[in-house]
Structures are given as structure tokens and as C-alpha cells.
Write a structure and sequence with these properties.
By secondary structure, the protein is of the alpha+beta class. The chain has 7 helices and 6 strands.
């Protein structure tokens, strides 16, 4: 599956070579899924499959990842794995453009955001200006609070919602 990311480098009517297999394994190691290299793709969990697909994109030598809801259907552990891995890629200089319905993921990843409340309600700008209690409460039509806390000496932000309550 990961070697398929090399199709652009392999060329028409050619087979992947040693360099392509090395690039695929390097991408799998970078993403942390090299231990899965001999497992058939359909036998992997949803989180493992998502990580392998991202490794496939990395193997293609792309400068930017474009991801549509990369953690949909994943449990909290696998969601955290995806977000942590994306943060590492961003820190290494890779561009990441993603859609998400999880604003906490945008809090962890984004420099700039687009909030889409409808066709006539699209706002763009720096994440620190748009990912606020007020803006998210307005976007989701429920009370949203962003909590800042410390873990292992690092500041983190989390989203808290008041399920069932009307916004103020």
C-alpha cells in the first residue's frame, strides 16, 4: 500500500524498484508503522489503516498533506496518534491542510483556520483569533469553553461543551 505512493516517481509501465521500496519503508518508519509492513491492509485497524495511508502520502515526497477528516471513525487513542503524528510532520516543515469537525484538533495543529457556519458565514484568519470560546459557541450554536491546562510541563488546550444547554 505504501509503495503505491511512489507511482509518480516510478513512471508509466515500470515497476517499483529498490529506491521506491526504501522510500516506502522510510515513510513507514517516520510515521511509526514499519512493524505493519508485512500485514495485509484489510487486516489493519482503522487507525493503523489511516497511518499507513499517511505513510503512503509521505513516500510520494509531497511537500504538503491534504487530509479530509483524518480521524473520522477512530477511537480517542488513534485520534491522538494521528494528531501527534501530524504535529511532528508540521514541525519537520511539511504543510498540512485538513478538514475536521473536531475543533480540539484544530487547536492542536492550526496556524490559520477557516470556520464554515454556512454559505454566508465563512470566516478565515489566525487560529488564535478564531478558535475562541465566542467564535466556537457561535459556530456550533452551543456553549463552548476552551480550557488551558498543563501536562508534563507543556500547556495544552481542550474544548469543553455544555451538552444540552443553550448558548449565552
Amino acid at each position: 500500500m505504501v509503495v503505491m505512493g511512489r507511482v509518480r516517481q516510478v513512471g508509466l509501465f515500470s515497476a517499483p524498484g529498490r529506491d521506491d521500496r526504501v522510500a516506502a519503508l522510510d515513510a513507514m518508519e517516520r510515521i511509526g508503522v514499519a512493524h505493519l509492513r508485512d500485514r495485509p491492509f484489510p487486516t489493519l485497524s482503522g487507525g493503523e489503516q489511516q497511518l499507513v495511508l499517511i505513510a503512503r502520502d509521505i513516500a510520494s515526497d509531497c511537500p504538503m498533506l491534504v487530509l479530509d477528516e483524518p480521524s473520522t471513525g477512530l477511537d480517542l487513542h488513534n485520534q491522538a496518534q494521528i494528531v501527534t503524528m501530524l504535529r511532528k510532520l508540521v514541525a519537520d516543515g511539511m504543510g498540512v491542510l485538513l478538514t475536521t469537525h473536531h475543533p480540539d484538533q484544530a487547536l492542536a495543529l492550526a496556524d490559520d483556520v477557516v470556520l464554515m457556519g454556512g454559505a454566508d458565514d465563512v470566516r478565515t484568519g489566525p487560529a488564535d483569533l478564531l478558535l475562541t470560546d465566542e467564535e466556537l459557541s457561535r459556530l456550533y450554536s452551543i456553549e463552548v469553553r476552551i480550557l488551558t491546562y498543563e501536562n508534563n510541563g507543556n500547556a495544552h488546550r481542550a474544548i469543553i461543551t455544555a451538552y444540552g444547554d443553550e448558548p449565552e
